[in-house]
Amino acid sequence: MKRRIPLRKRLLVRLLIASVLIAVCSVAATAWLAVETTTRALREEQGQDLADDMRILAELSGYAATHPEWKGVQATVRTLAATTGRRIALTTADRTFIADSAPKGTSLPLGAAATVDPLHTDTYTESGAQLSGIDPRAVGPYRLTAGERERLEAIAAKQQTCYHRFGVETKVEQSPSGRPVIVNSDGGPTSDYLAQDCGYGLLGEPTRTERKALDDLTEGARACLHRHGLDLGSPLHLMLDPTGKATSSRYVIAEYAKMGDAKVTKTAQTCTDDALRVQLAPYVAPVAELYLGGDDPTTPPRFDMSPTNKAKIVGAAGLVLAVTLAVTAVVATRLVRPLRALTEAAQQPPDMHVRVPVTTRDETGILAEAFNDLTERRERIEAQRKAMVSDIAHELRSPLTNIRGWLEVTRDGVVDPDPALLASLHEEALVLQRVIDDLQDLAAADAGTLRLHREPVRADELLDQVAAAHRVAAAAAGVAVHTKTEDGPWLDADPVRMRQALGNLVSNALRHTPADGTVTLTARRDGDEVVFTVTDTGTGIAPEDLPHVFDRFWRAEKSRSRRTGGSGLGLPIVRHLIAAHGGSVVAASEPGAGAEFTLRLPGAATSL
Asked: How confident is the model over 14-30, as a mean pLDDT?
């Protein structure tokens, strides 16, 4: 009975659901584009708001960098609030108010917009950004005195005149510490060779104030370096870099940079930055939380979409959804069609071995090819099974028929149970027993229950035992059996099973070797393996028959009986026994030149 697949589990429904999800994403993207198109002006306004927010943060960070406390910041907050139209509130980490532009009692927003911390956030070096570092406006003990500024300004004026003589237009800018800096007309640094000719070193020398601050910074940095095990026992050579705008360029760690060790230089830089923060801490305001905006419910929304734009978005969304569903239904139907063919083929009776046509090269086509391959393998296995059952029945029927026939005529008194008759019945029983034993060994090998009792075995002794066991049969057939061993190899194996495997090969060779022929058994070491070969001078095996020599119940000549051609189980047993030992067996032959069977097994170094 054909099983009905639940609707929610059908591939078509799943594909439709997936398509709907894709369509929803497409609709969302369409809606976003529509909103972007219709609210461009509003985004520009929001961009202006963001710029105002960054300006507020930069102004308050500058205040914190130049004042040791927040006392007096209320005037600055009110001015910024009036200029930007935003509510501005400063609090401590526990939300205690420092300053607020809103009336008293107005609640704060849920989260702070930013943290004002000039010792860890730089809002001055790059406008509109929050860089990691120290705000350059936090100068503390590096602020020059009035006399020092006048002296440096005079030196800067002379240098500017020197630049002008060389045809280079410059201007003088003042750093937050009050130090004048000469830059190009576009604000970039001046050329190095002109700076040297115009006495750049005079302007770059630290003043007395800066030297004292740099010495204190050096002591703090050396204490940190000592904790990191980097005390070199020499000065840090901190030098002022007056051309730099950022805090990290206020000084150059010359001694460490000259060493060329990036890790050491980084550690020295970190220690110096930490020491600088400790040095500047008394001169800057404590860390504060900045809140912008408020929770006033009367505040109008900052985004309002018109009904016309809403209608356009809904219409576009519906159109996209409809088109997506139509396309998905067509594609899904084409995808499901080969799967239905596979399902119908799989539901056919097994004995029909139905194939399905391969019409695509995608995943469905690959699945169809795999299904056809599976069908072919199943058909082949079924044929082998039928042939094996027929062969087993034939092998067991012949000896049982002989035994039954002789027993019936003996019971009826037609013949007497003389020794010759009993010997014949015994021989038939042995044939029957041998077939059953072979089948039992194969069944154990197939089930993985074939037990091995491993022990150290000498290859030469193993060959001698196999040859001795077949001397009588070889003499009766007029065939000589020889053994040859090189290097006396050892192997860790089950001697009984190995004698059985080699014995099957020797028995097979004796049956196919004419009188005056030879069967040779050899053993040698090949690397970590022991190689056994059983070679005969018999009729050989045809090339088209070689791939089948290890098949069960296979005989090169179908007309041969079990007495002349064996039961057809000896070579399959050899293959399973050698595989159980972790080895392999191959056959090679040329018609009329004999056959050679090669066994490769893991060797053992020495006896145990």
From this structure: 73
pLDDT value of position 521: 93
Q: Which amino acid is at 232?
A: L
CB-CB contact of 412 with 437 (8 Å): no
Q: Is the per-residue pLDDT at 42 higher than 70?
A: no
- For 151-162, give one letter per residue: b (16+ CB within 10 A) or e: ebeebbeebbeb
pLDDT in tens, 348-374: 777 777 788 877 666 667 777 888 888
Helix or strand run (H / E) with residue 72: none
Mean pLDDT over residues 99-119, rounded? Answer: 87
Strand partners, 531: 524, 600
What are the C-alpha distances in Å from 586 to residues 304, 583, 596? Answer: 83, 10, 8
CA dihedral of residues 425, 431, 437, 443 (deg, nearest 10): -120
- Helix (H) or strand (E) run with residue 586 in it: strand 584-589
* CB 117 within 8 Å of CB 92: no
Query: CB of 603 within 8 A of CB of 581?
Result: no
Do residues 510 and 570 touch, judged by C-beta distance below 8 A? no
- How many CB atoms are closer than 10 A to CB 247? 25
Residue 483's φ and ψ, nearest 5 degrees, are -125, 150
Give the mean pLDDT of 131-156: 88
| Residue showing tokens 């699945």 | 367
Q: Which residues contact 220 (CB under 8 A, 6 or more apart)?
A: 274, 275, 276, 278, 279
Q: Model confidence at 10, in pLDDT bands (50, 70, 90)?
A: low
Longest dimension (CA), the chain: 148
CATH class of 350-449: mainly alpha
In three-state form (DSSP H/G/I as H, E/B as E, the rest C), the secondary structure along 358-423 is: CCCCCHHHHHHHHHHHHHHHHHHHHHHHHHHHHHHHHHHHHHHHHHHHHHHHHHCCCCCCCHHHHH
Length, in residues, of the chain: 608
Strands 480-485 and 114-116: unpaired
**Can you give the pLDDT at residue 299?**
45
User: Checking DSSP bridges between strand 480-485 and strand 518-526, what pairing results, if any?
Assistant: parallel
Is residue 486 within 8 A of residue 458, CB to CB? The reply is no
Burial class (CB in 10 A: 0-12, 13-18, 19+), 278: middle
What is the architecture of the domain spanning 451-604?
Answer: 2-Layer Sandwich (3.30)
* CA 43/CA 494 separation, integer angstroms: 85
Confidence of residue 531 (pLDDT cuts 50, 70, 90): very high
Q: What is the mean pLDDT of the chain?
A: 77
In angstroms, the CA 206 to CA 237 distance is 12
Tens of pLDDT, residue by residue over 230-252, are 765 555 555 555 444 443 444 54
- Say how far apart CA 180 and CA 226 lie, in whole Å: 35
Q: What percent of the chain clears pLDDT 70, i.e. is strictly above it?
A: 73
- Which of 249, 292, 374, 359 has its CA nearest to residue 81? 292
Q: What's the confidence (pLDDT) of residue 560?
A: 44
Q: Where are the beta strands (DSSP E) in 187-271?
A: 238-240, 251-253
Least confidently predicted of 40-44, 114-118, 301-305: 301-305
- H or E element that contains 157: helix 146-165
d(CA 512, CA 592): 11
